[in-house]
Amino acid sequence: MVFCRHQYQYTQGYFVCVKCRKRTSQKRTHYRRRKKRAWIILSIIAVAVIVYFVLHPTLNSSFVTIQKPNFINTPDSPPPTIIKIPIPKLPASISTHLPDITAPNIPSIIPQATPPPSLDELKQIALDDINKYRAQNGIHSLTLGNARSSQIYAEELLQEGCIHHIDSKGEGPMLRYKNNGDTMFLVSENIAGESGTNYGTPQSSILDGNNKMMYDDASSNWGHKRNMLDPQPMSVSIGIAYDSQRLVMVQDFQAILPSGYEYDPSSFQTEPQDQKLCW
Known about the structure:
Blueprint: E1 8-11, E2 14-17, E3 23-24, H1 26-55, H2 57-67, H3 92-95, H4 106-109, H5 119-136, E4 143-144, H6 148-160, E5 162-163, H7 173-179, E6 186-195, H8 202-215, H9 223-228, E7 235-242, E8 246-255, E9 277-278
Parallel strand pairs: 4-7
Antiparallel strand pairs: 1-2, 2-3, 5-9, 6-8, 7-8
């Protein structure tokens, strides 16, 4: 008996083996049964889907609402609800401590540049520093004099860029007092100058000038120090002139004239210009 592994092919209502030509209708019946069962299952699923959507209209409408923008109203959909969120207000106790930053008040909270000291303030700084050295040495303090000559000469020296005691006209301290109409005293004069890398601020230059005349005056035979610590003067007129690069300070120590004092005529004569120290 020959064994055949059948390979059926559907032909004219039967399945026929392509190898041995055996004919049977069994596979056809099985095929139709499977096909019919599939149609039944698909039909049941279709009916279930239709019934589900018919019985649940809210699901259908929700699906449509999600797909459309919020501003398009769909039938049977409720209007959108507007939720208002209140903005909390600060308690009065807190708001009173907040800074007022309105436009008119803005300049008041912006740091302002410190203005430079006035000429009178600089003269007071110089006077207080002189009196500090005098107090350290047990000598009475001086008051600030009002002679015009000291300030006029300080401005002339700043413009010239040199310091010296006899000006270009041959006038010394006493003759300048007379020619400028100042009250006459016995005058002894100190002049200090700062420039270049030594120049910081007017205040620091004033203090540095006094310090050098007190402790670094050997080249002038300590004459500046003697004037600063002289017990005879009762006041000092101070002239200060400066720019962005240099400062000149003139100190005219004023001693009261003794009763019946007569000036030496040479005090009011012109003199040869003395040695200049220029920058």
